[in-house]
Amino acid sequence: AISTAVILFWTIPTAAVVAFSTVENLQLNYPGLKSFFEKYPWMIQVFKQISPLGLAVMTALAPMIMTYLSKREGHPSGAQVKGSTFAKLVYFQTFQIFFVSVIAGSLIESLSKVLDQPQLLVKMLGTSIPAQATMFMSYLIVKIGVDLDVELLRVMPLILGFVYKLFAPKVTARERSSPWFGLRPASFAGDFDTGGALPDYFLALLLVVTFCAIAPLLNYFALLYFIVAELVFRRQVLYVYDPSPHSSGVYWPRLHTFLVGALLLSQVTFLGMISLKIAPGPIAAATALPFVSAVYYLYIEGIFPRSAKNLPLFSCARLDKQRAGHAFANLSAAFVQPALTASDPIKPDYSELATNVQDHPHTSTSNGDEEDGHSRSTAKDKSMKGFHI
């Protein structure tokens, strides 16, 4: 609820920033600006550049807020905190950068019609989104020239490290290397924030699938962004950030859902643009696309999540055979993947998934009950209990 409130509250400054890019609407709503732009025509380009710069600055502030909110939600692991932050940032950027930019830029005069007749939204998206192609091109250029440069030069870590150096206690060596109110020295790089980079990739991909058939020129700017981002982030991961123990798999189920949603949004937008033409054939073909994407999503969601959460049938049968002598009062979690039911800390245990010990004549699994006179060997046997090679 708090995240939703923050996203909705952020609409006000976003709409104000985007309004600067539509100089024509500003002149209509504020006639006094017309004489100002006639006297200083170069200010028209300045106003048009304020919008993408402002959007980039506001996007840079969002990760800090969303990370704080995710940490306060009580997730049991850092990976889940990052996954929650990633989802919030995707919702934030999709709503603020995409929808609010479109509404504030070209639907402000037709918003009352949308509220009265919601069925007109598809046609209005088809007419309004293409008009924002120039603004989104400028936004991608700003992301390349500002955000990636800031990441490459590590401007924010240097600023935060300078604040840490000024105010953090540094009497002992431990204090000089310990975090202070979330701040660390600039020399502490940490691991790469995948959840902070993926929302930018997703937004660029959303622009590509939306404008590829409407304004193909935007695809070249998106391609340039992907190339530069690949070089910058690859260099940072290899030479700056610390190795991470996480595989970043927590992002991909949600990312798949977001990608299908982006495809549906682009298809609805394309349908709205095609519906402006009196041609039943293209309209019918465009109408079928969202349904095909929806069927694909339901098919994927019916296969892979169930396979990831439950064991294969062969492993279940083997478990039943090994547990034949056990009395189970509750079988609700009997066939859940072991990694999903393990307690903290998770320790590898393959004893139940492996075949019987008698099937491996060269494998010995000491239970530590035999006394051989060597305490080190006994401790080693105990530590290796449950592993069958």
Protein model, in words:
With 389 residues, this protein is mainly alpha-helical. It folds into 2 domains: 2-309, no CATH class; 328-383, no CATH class. The protein is 67% helix and 0% strand. It has 18 helices and no strands. It has helices spanning 2-9, 11-19, 23-29, 32-39, 42-71, 78-106, 111-116, 121-128, 133-153, 155-167, 173-177, 194-211, 217-239, 252-274, 280-309, 313-322, 338-341, 375-383. The longest helix is centred in the first third of the chain and has 30 residues, at 42-71. The radius of gyration is 28 Å and the shape is flat.
Give the gist of this structure.
The protein is mostly helical and 389 residues long. Helices cover 67% and strands 0% of the residues. It is flat, with a radius of gyration of 28 Å.
Based on secondary structure, the structural category is mainly alpha
Average the pLDDT over all residues and give the rounded result. 74
Alpha plus pi helix count: 18
The number of distinct structural domains comes to: 2
Radius of gyration: 28 Å
| Ends distance | 50 Å
The largest pleated sheet is described as:
none
Which range best describes the helical content: under 10%, 10-25%, 25-40%, 40-55%, 55-70% or over 70%? 55-70%
How many β strands by DSSP? Answer: 0
Estimate the global geometry from the Cα principal axes. Answer: flat
Instruction: Indicate the proportion of strand residues.
Output: under 5%
- Indicate the low-confidence ranges by residue numbers: 352-389
Topology as H/E string? HHHHHHHHHHHHHHHHHH
GO molecular function: calcium-activated cation channel activity
Protein name: CSC1/OSCA1-like 7TM region domain-containing protein
Organism: Aphanomyces astaci (Crayfish plague agent)
InterPro entries: Csc1-like (IPR045122), CSC1/OSCA1-like_7TM (IPR003864)
